């Protein structure tokens, strides 16, 4: 009998009753079946074909990339646990180490308001259960704005989960989780946020996995006033990260290592023009490339790829959590 994709996703679903930013430790243990693995492989092939078919469109729509490589020290500082960060290859590569004593974090020297903010990462290999590796942006103000990529470790042979979240004016609770359709520990992949006045797009390589539109006309707050710094970090999240905290960190595999590279930043630093409060907004003769018309909405190919991600890989979406949100937040019906 053919495996129903919906049934397979249920095996990994962080249910509406049990999943919040942290998941209940009482949830029954979830194991990935052979049928689930087969479905993930099949879905990955479908995604790959879809991405390939729309590659030309993606090139036309794709965020521009910085032309010059940047070293870690040019744009970043270590925030805490410097003895758990090692710089390699002349500062073009940074490893974060996690052991029983500590994880670590680094952050950008400057804050940015809009742009294309990215990082290439290779995640913890093999048994990474309990670990959380993050690439995120945050204003670190009382009512903070924040965009999160959080990679939740797994038991060997099971897929990595990616949790994204969005805070605006101090309010989050917009978690979405997907299963990655590839092994992110085998090679570097690019994780990025394209942020402009119109939308926030989360990308995995060239594939959009989430869109948060500017729906301020619906009364939904949007992040366009607080510059944010960019961070990379890793810590022990065994109380919630893997199967709701049932799968604990196996310290026999420590130190866990996540690698980061590509430290160029393509964003607007408002402090570079302190006398101009509108410096980061495109208007008149001032045009930032990320505000160009083609970056204001997803194109047809990207919408198709996003739809494939939603159908085949989503395991939690706050927009469908009617026990948590009733009625559902107004942006849920307006985002792609």
TrEMBL record:
Question: What keywords is this UniProt entry annotated with?
Answer: Apoplast, Cell wall, Cell wall biogenesis/degradation, Disulfide bond, Glycosidase, Hydrolase, Membrane, Secreted, Transferase, Transmembrane, Transmembrane helix
Residues forming the catalytic site: 146, 150
Q: Name one GO cellular component term.
A: apoplast
Quote the function comment for this protein.
Catalyzes xyloglucan endohydrolysis (XEH) and/or endotransglycosylation (XET). Cleaves and religates xyloglucan polymers, an essential constituent of the primary cell wall, and thereby participates in cell wall construction of growing tissues.
All copies of the GH16 domain together span 64-260
Supply the name of the protein.
Answer: Xyloglucan endotransglucosylase/hydrolase
The main location is secreted
Glycosites: 154
